[in-house]
Amino acid sequence: MDDIKIFQRFLKDVRHLKDFEYFKHLDHKIINKNKRKQICKVKPRRPRFNPMEEMNEIEFRKKYRYTKENMRRIIEIVRDDLEVDYYEPMKRNQVPIDLQILSAIRFFGGTEHPQLTAMVHGVSLHTMAKITRRVAAVLSSKASRYIRMPATLSEKERMMRSFQYLSNMPQVIGAVVQTNVRLQLESRSSYSGTELAANNEELVHLQVVADAEHKIKDLDIRLPEELGHNTAQEFFSLSRIKERFEQNEFRGRILLGNESLSCSHFLFTPVRNPKNKSEDLYNQAHSATFVPAVKCLNYWIRRFGILSSELLGTFGSAKHTITALALLHNMAMEWNDPSIDSDFSLPIYKPNIFCYPNGTTISEDQRNRNEFIKTHFSSN
Asked: What does the pLDDT read at residue 377?
């Protein structure tokens, strides 16, 4: 009997031990859960800056170079392509698509130091560089829709009328102007703060064909090594627009160029030493009709300040950026965006005019220009 009682007490002790182990295990779970809560209790992430909501219209236009309405248009045009191309490194940074577009365009505007632009949008300078390149690449892929010479007869006629309205110069379908931008080639990772290699700067030459409404209708981008001594003339000779005119794609129409280019049967330049009233009248009309090309560059580079400072990266990325900025400029002109017109603090940009080399002769095709002058600017 005593043995039975002892055994029963033993069973009770075993049950108590199991209960103890269960509660001990439960305590451990509670303690571990509390520890995990403490570990995971991170300071709530501050909401990202939303310039569309937190900036008034005037301040927004100063920083982003567009009205809010027009910025929304740009976002809608670009958003889907950026979402498709949303690659893994950018996912980790959790930068919303809209904010990527906004930060890239503010960076292109050059209204402040790039480091400040990155900080304002809550990203590192390295991430900022990736964002701007992605946005530029997507925009440049749409260039053929927004940067193109007139194709239909009605488009060509309308462009000629808009030029003729300026100073009664007929047959003009575009004006050619050239300039350059500085490109700082990357050595390792410049945005991470590493030093650039010495003498690692290039001049990227640009040729623009503008219309009378200050829009870019054709764009060519080349490095200096592609060009000869007479940079301007060699550039034009290699350009696709020259080839298209030589193939008679714009039959009976002409381009206007400045003194740095040679006169040809489709490219008319000013008469250097006018000898009569007709040539004086032609030069005056040429000057007034050529003004939109200079203004086009002026508006373009005032809106996107990085074009007057320097681009950073490879030549390929620079071409994407320049093409993207030309597209964005055309959008601004098309929408009559007033953002830079009211900013009087911006300097007036003067395009680079390449000097005509000593000893260079004027093309024999200037006789076509002489016939044009006699036909349309005769003082009789």
From this structure: 87
